[in-house]
Structure formats: C-alpha cells, structure tokens
Amino acid sequence: MDSAAVAMEIPHHDAPVSLKKSRTAALEAMEDIVYGSVAGVVGKYIEYPFDTVKVRLQSQPDNQPLRYKGPIDCFRQSFQAEGFRGLYRGISAPLVGAALENSSLFFFERIGRAAVYQSGWTPQGQELSLSALWFTGAFSGFFTSYVLTPVELVKCKIQAPAGADGSGASQQLRPLSVVRDIYRHQGIRGFWHGQMGTLIRESGGCAAWFGSKETVTKMFNVLNARSAKTQGERDALVGKPLPLWQQALAGASGGVSYNFLFFPADTIKSRMQTAAIGDAALNRSFWQEGAAVWRQHGLRGLYRGCGITCLRSAPSSAFIFIVFDGLKRHFPLQ
Questions:
Q1: Is-contact 41 314, C-beta < 8 A?
Q2: At 282, is the secondary structure helix, strand, or coil?
Q3: What whole-number distance in Å separates Cα of residue 224 and Cα of residue 170?
Q4: pLDDT tens readout for residues 224-261
C-alpha cells in the first residue's frame, strides 16, 4: 500500500474535536467576561449609595471627633449636603471596576476549577467538592485583587469627603483628575496603594463569596430532593435551576459572608486609599495602619460601616449571581 493510500485511511477526527474543545473553552471564557460585566454593573447600581456611606464611615480621621454617628446619620448628612446625586458621586470609575471585578472573578474562578481538575484533587468528570469550590473562590480573588486595587483607589478618593480634617468641604473630583494626581505624585506603583488590604479581602472574601453561594445552593438541592414525593419528581429536579427565591438567598449569603469575614482588611484599605497626597498617613504600611485603628478605636473601629455594607451586599450579590447564571443559561454564546 503506497503512502497516499495510507494517508487516506488515517482518521481525521482529532483536529475537529480539538478545535471544538478550544472553541468551547473560548466561548465559555467570553461568557464569563461579558455576562460577568453585565451582572457587575447591575449590582453596582444597587449597592453604590451604601458603599459611599461605608467609605465615609471608614475614612473618618483619628484626630477628630467622629463626624458621623452611624450609617443613618451619614446618609442624612450626605443627602443634606449633596442631595441624592452625591451618594452616586464618582460612580463612573466603580462601574468600570464592577465590570472588571466580576468578569475577572468568574473568569479566574473557571481557571481555578480547571486547575483543581488538572492537579488531580478532583477526578475529571466529577463534581467539585465544597472545599474545592472555596479554593477556586480564593484563587479567583487573589488574581482579581490586582485588577481591582487601582479602580478602588480612585473610587475611594472620590467618595470620601474632601479635607483630611473631616470638614467635608465639597469638592467635585473627577476620575481622570484623580488618576493624574496619583500618577504625578506616586507614579505607576501608586495605583496599587492598599494592595495588601485588597488581596486579603478578595482572596478570603471571594472564597466565602463563591463558597457560601455553592454551599447554600447544595443545601437547597438536598432539601428540594427530600421534599419530592416521587422518584419522578426527584429526577425532574436534576439539572433544573433552583426557584428564584432560593437563588437569591444563596447569592445573598455569599455577599454577607464576603463582607463580614474580612471587613477589617477593607477598613484598613479604605483608610490608606483615602489619605490625602502629602499626608503622613500615606506612608503607613497595611499593618501600621491597622495598628493605628486598633489603638484608637479597637475592634469596633475595624468593623465601622460593616452593618451597612452587609445590608447592601445581600441584594447586590443576589442580583449578580441571578443575572450571571440566568444569562449563561438562557443566552449561551454559540
């Protein structure tokens, strides 16, 4: 048999299958980026006024009496001074940040899942354990923190009242002017000021964000299966999405866990990022800033603004997961 005949008998399945697999992986990655961005923007519009209040509570100076008595008082003073639009001041940068953050989170979480399978932690084809899902969340948060820190730095400087003395004099900062100011005084490295706080918050917080959501989802799946009266009803539940209210509770649990467990890291980060250019506090390390808060206000100071943050994160995270999962389920990219 000549070489031409041999060549004709060789099956040609490998190339199309490989191409199909790579195309599928590329489309799934694109879904993570596009749908994660959409979900992030929706969630940011819901949570942003609460986030503004949180940053203002966290960034109150140590050497002055507290300007705000609590979240409600901060809402009241902010609304009286700036109106409703003031609570959305500087939202343009956070919208970009929300799109980047959530697309990065879902994208890197997928990479984390692939790493778990490739490492042999979980055999190919098996469902990931809860411990593995918590790990993929931490994996995702670690890498996302480097994307997020510059955006949060700009956001915090815009949200915080002007004046390091807490006077709160109105100053309409714009994202581009803040970016120029940071670069002029601190260079490129200045955009990652507060990175340690973001890294701790995102790595630990995202482990809780994804992990809690998946834990509650599995709990509901078990409860729904137990409540089914016949085998046919149980079979019908396989592959079927949870009822909307259960999806919302699962997503909300992730948001509350994310914020509560690692809130002190976020407090320290916000204080570092709202320090004025030229302020001595700008040169403090993450641990030095944390020690200063502890000496001045104790544990309560590290959790200042936590209540309002958990309150806003519950509906925001619920919407993010519902929108993301819904888009992937109903509008898969072909």
A1: no
A2: helix
A3: 53
A4: 999 988 888 888 888 789 999 999 999 999 999 999 99
Strand partners for 169: 162
How far apart, in whole angstroms, are the C-alpha atoms of residue 53 and residue 48? 9
* 75 three-state secondary structure: helix
CA-closest candidate to residue 181, choices 198, 168, 162, 165: 162
83: left (phi over 0), alpha (psi -120 to 50) or beta: left
CA-based nearest residue to 31, from 330, 320, 328:
328
* Alpha-carbon span 35 to 40, nearest angstrom: 8
CB 53 within 8 A of CB 305: yes
**What is the distance, to the nearest Å, from the Cα of residue 211 to the centroid of all Cα atoms in its chain?**
13
pTM: 0.78
User: Is the pLDDT confidence value at 23 over 60?
Assistant: no
| H/E run at residue 205 | helix 195-227
For 249, the token pair is 């509770």
From 166-175, 201-210, 256-265, the region with the lowest mean pLDDT: 166-175
